[in-house]
Amino acid sequence: ESLVESLICKYLLGTGTASGRSIADAISLPFGLLEDLFRALRARQILCHSGSAPLNDYYYTLTEQGRDRAQVFSEACAYVGAAPVPLAEYLLSVDAQTIRAEAPQHDQLQSAFADISVDPVLFDSLGPAVNSGAGLFLYGDPGNGKSTLAKCITMCFGQHVWIPRTLYEDNQIVKMFDPVYHEPVEGAKESMLKSRNHDPRWVKISRPTVIVGGELTMDNLEIRHDPRSNVSEAPLQLKSNCGLLLIDDFGRQRIEPAELLNRWIVPLENHVDYLTLATGKKIQVPFDQLIIFSTNLKPEDLVDEALLRRIPYRLNIGDPAEQEFLL
After folding, report:
1. Eight-state DSSP code of residue 100
2. Measured between alpha carbons, how far is 248 from 302 in angstroms, rounded to an integer?
3. CA separation for the pair 295, 142 (Å, rounded)
4. C-alpha distances in Å from residue 67, one per residue of 15, 63, 85, 183, 229
5. Residue 194 and which of 96, 287, 315, 325 are 20 to 30 A apart at CA?
């Protein structure tokens, strides 16, 4: 309740005046759930009415005491937006939507690769690799379509997933939804507004495809905390859960390939990752995605055999035949 109170106060500190339903929409909680809290905040002289609003609602504004309280909340944590989802609920959602439960059939593979030319022998090898949900190496000469092939693989699954906008654990807020990698389903918001069962703290997206290249650093794989706002950002592998994580131009990063794979040696085998919050608390999160390494170097030249065992599929993308190239 104290967290929701802080979100209400910080929102009103920025907007000045808003109706109860507008506040509920801003923090993604049902208006009916907040009515008692509005009354309690008014009784404590944190909020006051500034007028009547439609549908048996009121316009609210902060009192002087409320503004002081909102300033304290803002200094402690600058986050304003959708109420966060507890980490335990997110863990259940990943388990329910795991990509390892999907089994794309031959027709789905053909549909996903319909716009590109794929060698029939390679196509037959891709099926088991995609269905395994395990790691995959795509290697071959530059320009042979490794990155294009990897981007098409996510389309094989062809389903949508729900992710929380933000996570909450140990009094820390971690931003999860990222418009760079997460594509909301068109029309989902309008249709879901009609459903009372929809929790607006969650957003419906296409299965995520997170693509990183030579800019990847070890910091991108850990929770990044902004000490000024006291808000954290989820790492790339967490944002790619239930989807695909493509490491493009593997071996060209500013970090050694072995260092990167050593970081993931336990997650690749046990499908769980361990992250550290700003408070120092270690949390266990799912490592649930099809991870693809695309490189123009031979995998055995990049890492040792122990690490290669964690990535069971290695597909060589050969040069196209002359007739295939002309087509």
Report:
1. G
2. 14
3. 8
4. 12, 6, 26, 36, 18
5. 96
